[in-house]
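RECORD TYPE: inverse folding
INPUT: C-alpha cells
STRUCTURE:
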C-alpha cells in the first residue's frame, strides 16, 4: 500500500467510527468520500497532479447539487486530526448545541487564546490584539480573535477597518448565536466602520457570515505553498527555511520548484478565500 493509499484508507477507517455510512463516491481522478448526505470530503495527497482550477470546479459542481465539498490535504489530516473531525462533526450536526445567550462574553488574554486555538482551530493561534471569549461557568466555549483597527484612506479620511482573524468553538460543541455575540461584543468595544473576514474555500461557503449580515465582496485567488514531506510543515515561498533558500541561491541549475522537489518538499495550494465585510455605523 502506497503513502497515498494509506492516507485514503486511514481516513475512511477513522471517519467510519464517527459516520458509519461514510463511503467512496468517486475514485478517479479524485478520491471523494461522502460522510453524510450533502457533506463530501475530497482527499488530497501531498504528491498530486491537480490544479487549483480543477478543485474549484469540483467544488462548484457539487455546490450546484446542494453538496458541501471539503478539500482535505494529507498534511492537515495527519497534523490536525482532532480539529478536522470536530469540524466535520459540526457539518453533520453531531455536536452538542449550546446557546450564546447563556454564555458570558469576556476578554481573553493571549496565553489563554493561544492554548484554546491550538486545540480547537485548524490553523492554530494568530497573534492579534483582541481576543474575546464565550464562557460557561469557568470554561471557555468559544473564542474570536480580531486585529487592531486599520485606517483605510481610500474609503475616507477617518475610515477604520478591522479583521476577524480566528473563530473557534470547543470541540464537540456548536454555539447557536455565538458568532453574532462575539462580533457584536467587539464592535461595541472597538469603533470601526467595517469588520472584514475570510472564509477558507477549502472548508467553507461562508453561510454563517451571510446569516449575520456580512456581504461577500471578493473571492481571492488560490495561494501556493510548499510542504516538507518529513515534518509536514507548510511554508510560503518567501518564508522557506533560511538554509533551504541559501542552498537554492548557491546553485544556478534548478528553478525553485525543481530544487525543492529534490530536497523533500511538495508543492500544494488552497482554493483561495471568500472575502466578507460587515459594515458598521460608528
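DESIGNED SEQUENCE:
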Amino acid at each position: 500500500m502506497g503513502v497515498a493509499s494509506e492516507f485514503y484508507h486511514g481516513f475512511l477507517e477513522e471517519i467510519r467510527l464517527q459516520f458509519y455510512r461514510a463511503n467512496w463516491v468517486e475514485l478517479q481522478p479524485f478520491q471523494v468520500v461522502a460522510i453524510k448526505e450533502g457533506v463530501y470530503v475530497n482527499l488530497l495527497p501531498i504528491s498530486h497532479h491537480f490544479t487549483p482550477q480543477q478543485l474549484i470546479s469540483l467544488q462548484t459542481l457539487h455546490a450546484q447539487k446542494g453538496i458541501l465539498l471539503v478539500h482535505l490535504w494529507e498534511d492537515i489530516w495527519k497534523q490536525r486530526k482532532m480539529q478536522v473531525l470536530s469540524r466535520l462533526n459540526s457539518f453533520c450536526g453531531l455536536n452538542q448545541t449550546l446557546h450564546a445567550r447563556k454564555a458570558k462574553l469576556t476578554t481573553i488574554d493571549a496565553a489563554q487564546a493561544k492554548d484554546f486555538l491550538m486545540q480547537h482551530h485548524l490553523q492554530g493561534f494568530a497573534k492579534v490584539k483582541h481576543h474575546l471569549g464565550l464562557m460557561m461557568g469557568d470554561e471557555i466555549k468559544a473564542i474570536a480573535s480580531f486585529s487592531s483597527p486599520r485606517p483605510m484612506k481610500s474609503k475616507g479620511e477617518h475610515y477604520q477597518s478591522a479583521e476577524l482573524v480566528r473563530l473557534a468553538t470547543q470541540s464537540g460543541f456548536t454555539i447557536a448565536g455565538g458568532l453574532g455575540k462575539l462580533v457584536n461584543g467587539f464592535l461595541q468595544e472597538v469603533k470601526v466602520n467595517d469588520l472584514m473576514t475570510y472564509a477558507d474555500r477549502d472548508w467553507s461557503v461562508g453561510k454563517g457570515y451571510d446569516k449575520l449580515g456580512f456581504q461577500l465582496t471578493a473571492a481571492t485567488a488560490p495561494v501556493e505553498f510548499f510542504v516538507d514531506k518529513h515534518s509536514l510543515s507548510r511554508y510560503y515561498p518567501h518564508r522557506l527555511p533560511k538554509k533551504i533558500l541559501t542552498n537554492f541561491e548557491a546553485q544556478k541549475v534548478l528553478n525553485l520548484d525543481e530544487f525543492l522537489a529534490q530536497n523533500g518538499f511538495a508543492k500544494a495550494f488552497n482554493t483561495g478565500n471568500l472575502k466578507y465585510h460587515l459594515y458598521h455605523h460608528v
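NOTES: The chain has a mean pLDDT of 92.
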